Amino acid sequence: MRSLNPPHLVLASAVLLLVAGCSKHPSEEAASEATEATENVAAVDSSVASEARRDEARIPDIGQAVAPGVAFTYRYAFTLPVKAIAGVQQQHAAACERLGAKRCQVVGMSYDQPEEGKVSAHLDLMLAPEIAHGFGSEAIAAVEKADGSIGRASVAGDDAGGAIAQSQRRSGAFEAQLGRIEARLKAPGTSKQERRQLAQRAEELRSQLGEEQRGRQDSEASLATTPMSLTYASEGLFSATSDPFGKAAVSSFGSLQGFLAFLLTAAGLLLPWLLLGALVVLLFRFRAMKQRLAEATGGAADPTPPQ
What we know:
Number of strands: 5
Helix content: 55-70%
Radius of gyration: 44 Å
Strand content: 15-25%
Oligomer: single chain
Shape: flat
Number of helices: 6
Structural class: alpha+beta
């Protein structure tokens, strides 16, 4: 067999390197494209997570301090476009109905439109305590989705558990006292007057025990359900939610309010001095008028004697 010459060997090596390079290039492109796609997906996921965190931050975090034995009442006040109020109110009511009567009940609902462009509505709910905060967050999200905003959110708490414990202690003392009175009534040798007084006191104790029991039942009911009040109000005459003309009108109205406030402040500062100056001018005019009147009266009373 005849061996290849060195020039042929160099040419063959170059061809092999070129083929290897061409076969490697597509795989590198595919790898770079896959890496880029992965980075894009990660960036999208990161942006979605950031947006979700921002949305969560806009929701008032007022349900994290829930304590056992405390009965809470939630109140939310929303501001929405006029045309969106009825739909959002119905959406909140429907969400309550989907939870079932054991977890949520609609106990009051109103919708008032006294004039064109002005609407107010109200929705009262009774919720299971463990879902109250979550329902409030979803209600806020529905309002924001309808281009509305939350104006006020509050949670009022009542120590119902402490009230129940105190009532139980009072009832225990009443029952102990009632037991002693009943034992005294059964004992022989008790006079009629004493028996009458003991019977009267026993009736008072039974009445107090009934009141304590009714109070505990009310406190237990407040722990079993959480009231939530949702109020809806229409936006003002100039809405700056998504209308550029509304934004311009709001800006102009704000400037007008600032100018009027400046005028009122200036008037309050200058008015006392203006009144003082006017009083001084009137005083000088009065003295000048009095002097002219005196000169005129003196000339008429003392005429010049004839020659």
